[in-house]
Amino acid sequence: MGSLLQVFRAVASAMIGVGKKKHLAKDFESTEKTGPWPYVIVGVIMTALFIGSILFAVRLVLP
Prior knowledge:
By secondary structure, the protein is mostly helical. The chain is built from three helices and no strands. Helix 1 (2-16) packs across helix 2 and helix 1 (2-16) packs across helix 3 (37-61). The radius of gyration is 14 Å and the shape is elongated. The mean pLDDT is 89.
């Protein structure tokens, strides 16, 4: 569960463009162990949620 939270934190910080070097080092170590697929899957899910929330907000504002 802790590594999943780390993946979500890494993807979220990458989406908004902030991060720390120590977290980046942890991410690279994790990627070497598990591969990039958890980051890819979480990135796709978070991107879909972001686009969905933008579409929802636009449909809520426009009649």
